Amino acid sequence: MAAKNQQTQKPKKRKQISHSKVERDSSKSKKPKLLAYNPSNNPPNKPLKKPFKSPKQKQKHPSDSKFKKSDSGNENKELTKRERRLQAKELAEARKKKRKPHYTLEQELASLWEKMRRRNIAKEDRSKLITEALQKMKGKIPEIASSHVSSRVLQTCVKYCSQTERDAVFAELLPHLLTLACNTYAVHLVKKMLDTASKPQLAGVISSLRGHVASLLRHMVGSVVIEHAYQLGNATQKQELLMELYSTELHLFKDLTSIKESRLVDVISKLSLQKSSVLRHMSSVIQPILEKGIVDHSMIHRVLIEYLSIADQVLICIFSMVDDTKLITKIVIRELQTTLKELALDKSGRRLLLQLLHPNCSRYLNPNDLASLNLSVPSLSAKNESEVQSEKISMDEESSKEAAMSDPDVTTTESGKNDTPEENLYSAEGGKKDPFLRRRELLVSSGLTENLVDVCIENAGELLASNFGKEVIFEVAMGGSDGILHPTLDEKLNNLHEAIAALVAKPKSEESEEEHVLENFHSSRTIRKLVLDCPAFASTLWKKSLEGKCQLWAQGHSSKVVCAFWESSDSKVRKMAKEELQPLIDGGILKIPETKQSANEG
To answer: How far apart are CA 141 and CA 520, in angstroms?
Structure first.
């Protein structure tokens, strides 16, 4: 029964399946046909209707676009990573060929260089490779020497080539030496050429550098070539390179550089050059070099030594500008303290001491010296009183107005001045530290003037009679400008006054060969100035040396000192000496200029 039932059921299923298919076919056939879109079918007043799209049509469009995109990117998808790298490399090579005219040649030279620079290569093989490389570079060496690749190839060729080939390379490079000397890569080739150059070739190089030494020394790369040539040259050639840096005349006229003198002092004397002109020229040459930090070369060291040997203001500028006075004390002043007497008696050395004691005094520095200082570095001195007062008044008015507007709590005086200390009203040029404070630290705090006063006491007679030393002892006895040595060294200054008075108190003797201080031209003028400008010294001198002895010294150079008491602007000094001097003046023994006499009487 079961078997029969199964047989009877199978055909039924087939019928159902076929029936379902029929139903699907019939359902498809029942769908209405789509009409083609025709704009004429729509009335004019109604908006146009978009044609109806079946779901199947909508699905085709994205698939079609994807298919098109895949067609356009077929070529890129087919390239592998290696192929893309090769393609990018080819593009880069093409760009380099356009940018570098000798790119292909450089590649050929690089392949030859890899072979010739090996250590285990035979000399014959290396010579062949070098000859081949030089043949390829012939006529193009100056153009390709600036490349980092070609420069290395040329260095190897110059090192191992024959002398004939080396001379050919040298002849081709010499006209372009100055340009190559400033190139970062070509400079190594130039140094190699100098190392292998013969004596005539080296002389030719040094001659071609003439007129360009200063400019090359200012160049970070070019200075290396100048220093290398300086090291390889003989004494005459070194002097030729140095002479250009000394003076404009030596820079322009080659014949002047052939002198035998090597020291700059001797050169100035031999050629009668102006020292101030030499200093200005050397300053203009040295300053840019030092500003760029090019200080390692021995040639620059030599120029600095020669400059310092004739420059009286080098140390003056340092003392005037550097704020770190402790550093100056350790390095400079400690060394100067051992030679204070020699400095005081020396024409140039005394200027350093005088600049500290009395900055920028036209009595001690000539116009050229002041011009070289340019009046911008000497921050050891304050400005003129009139300038300072005018600046203070204007700054006071401005500061009081600004203070009143910004801060009502700022108190001002009746004249409109605020409570700001006067020394802070203007800043010193050349440094941030107050100029008076810098001087005091260099002179007093360092112990320099304490030792200097002792030297003046021990050598008062010699310093007073010296044309140069008299200025130093005068400034010390005065206590320095602005009274900078007071009150710290008052006791020592009194001792110095007494030492000078003791010299004056010595009896006048015609038999003695030693000239009395009052009869010496330099010492009598110095003591006269001290009487006129320093009442404390005048009082000491009068009481210990001249009181009751004026008639003895009323003639000759000594009369200048006696007259100074009458001409003094200090009333106490005049009153002290008037009783003794009046009879000498009335009797015609002591002659006083009429202008001075009438002024004092009035």
So the answer is: 76
Q: Are 110 and 133 in contact (CB under 8 A)?
A: no
CA–CA separation, 227 and 242 (whole Å)? 11
Which of the two residues, 584 and 395, has the higher pLDDT score? 584
| Residue 151 Cα distances to 174, 175, 183, 238, 322, angstroms | 15, 17, 11, 28, 45
3-state SS class at 412: strand
> How much is the pLDDT for 508?
81
Tens of pLDDT, residues 537-555: 999 999 999 999 999 998 8
Q: What are phi and psi of 260, to 5 degrees?
A: -85, -25
- Kindly give the interhelix angle for 594-601 and 558-567, rounded to the nearest 10 degrees: 30
Of 540, 537, 535, 543, which Cα lies nearest the Cα of 574? 535
418: β partners: 412
Provide the strand spans (E) within 203-329: none
Contact 357, 475 (CB under 8 A): yes
* CB distance 455 to 464 below 8 Å: no
Q: How many CB atoms are located within 10 Å of the residue 74 CB?
A: 9
Please, what is the end-to-end C-alpha distance for the chain in angstroms?
172
Quote the CA–CA distance of 277 and 489 in Å, as a whole number: 40
For the chain, give the percent of residues with pLDDT over 90: 35
Rounded CA-CA distance 471/476 in Å is 9
DSSP string, 305-372: HHHHHH-SSHHHHHHHH---HHHHIIIIIHHHGGGHHHHHHSTTHHHHHHHHHSTT-TTTS-HHHHHH
Distance, in Å, from the CA atom of 503 to the CA atom of 463, rounded to the nearest integer, reads 12
Please check whether residue 103 is in contact with residue 94, taking contact to mean a CB–CB distance below 8 angstroms: no
**pLDDT per residue over 146-187, tens digit each?**
888 888 899 999 989 999 999 999 999 999 999 999 999 999
Q: How many other CB atoms sit within 10 Å of the CB of residue 223?
A: 24
pLDDT at position 16 is: 44
What's the CA gap between 365 and 376, in Å, rounded?
15
